[in-house]
Amino acid sequence: MLETIPEFFRKLAETYPKWNFIFFYDPVQWERVLGGLLVTVQLSIVCVIFSVVIGIIGAWAQGSPSAAIRWIVAGYIQFFRNTPPMIQLLFFYFALGQFTPTVTGADGWTEQPIISNVGWAIVSLSFFAGAFNVEIFRAGIEAVPDTTKEAAESLGMTRLQTYTQVVLPLALRVSLPSLNNNLVNLVKTTTQAIAIAVPELLYEMVSIWNDYNSAQNAAMTVLFFTYIGLVGVLIFGMHRWERALFIPGFGGTK
Amino acid sequence: MTNTQWDEGQPIVSIKNVRKSFGDLEVLKGVSFDVQKGEVICIIGPSGSGKSTLIRCINALADIQGGSIQVEGQEVHDDDLDKLELRKKVGMVFQQYNLFPHKTALQNIMMAPIKVLKQPKAEVEKRALALLKKVRMEGKENSYPGELSGGQQQRVAIARSLAMQPDVMLFDEVTAALDPETVKEVLVTIKDLAADGMTCILVTHEMGFAREVADHIYFTDNGVIVEHGPPTTFFDHAQDERTKAFLGQIL
Questions:
Q1: From the CA of A64, how many Å to the nearest CA of chain B?
Q2: Fewest CB within a 10 Å sphere: which of A34, A132, B87, B237?
Q3: Nearest to A154 among B87, B115, B144 (CB)
Q4: pLDDT by residue (tens digit) across B156-180?
Q5: ipTM score of the complex?
């Protein structure tokens, strides 16, 4: 069986030269696809986590008594929400990357920046998606009635306790459907890291079809199905989470 | 600031010439009264007369522009006020119950003693179960607020407030959002509390209840206390025209 799959695709490429699924029979190309997929998955997971953390902290800071903090958050949202993520990636890597210190590599003579292109992609994409997450969580927080917060306050809870124990758990439930959408977008936006040569899935696929022009249609087809699969896993997880957080009498259905 | 001079013979809550405005609108125009330990006080009056605002000022949910409010000798409207200390002494129950919808009845009651008072969980749980029994809600400890009726939620809210072991309880129109048939179960709970000697300050529209449980009635209108007295004197021998007009409409 395992033998027949490479054979099938090799034959297919011979019969239809425009459909060369080279990575399914050439182990070297297969390794490149797997490597790219691994980077995409890692980049997605790390950025999803960071962007949610940024969203939670940002939404908390938006309610800060300090006007300066509120302005900083507002400025951050305006910048990252209203500019294209591709330009942000280029800006972080090429503009800010110049100013970060370098370290001497393992070989003893090359100078490498302290933050790699993967590092900058994580920073850039997390802040991009995080800006939307702040707004998503803000909508959830505003849906929590002031009277519920007053009840927490009248029980002696501090602002932080009220936020972590009452406001956030309720806001999260309201925010989940929108958060879901934004995280799906984030996973898809990781492909833009190709602009700074992060070896994720799109980068590897484009490299393959640059080396083997006949693999272009095949690579694009596989890309579509892979992203449908990746996003499907994310949506499945988010729906499981939504159901796990269901509480009787507070919106949603089990 | 200090409450070293306070002893139980003095008023537990002392309100002196309190003024409060929302922008240009003055809602409290110099209100004064004292509450002794164990007393039950009912504040009645037409909507918009500042009743709810007044009791919200007692636990510093609202600030005041003039006068003084002292709880056990401690000035409430002081920039250095330790709000946690105040809120350990003063419990509050709201018109809309305001239970935490993501917590069960038992968790609602246990949350503040554990998180705020840092008491051990086992001890708090024991007390919470006893309180649920006291408000006649045993068997509902694992229900979420969304699964309870308004009257049941309000009784859990009362238990939640009692779990902090306050010295004074504030009730802000706690039956106003309830169906007529569930009003009674909440009033019975409050009556039990009063009978146990809890100091209660209630804003209410339940005149029959006020007459039965209150030691003293205050009638507010337009930001001032128009008339006050023990229930029988107040209801049967009202002096002021505004009081008479109000009671005439309601009774």
A1: 18
A2: B237
A3: B87
A4: 999 999 999 999 999 999 988 888 8
A5: 0.88
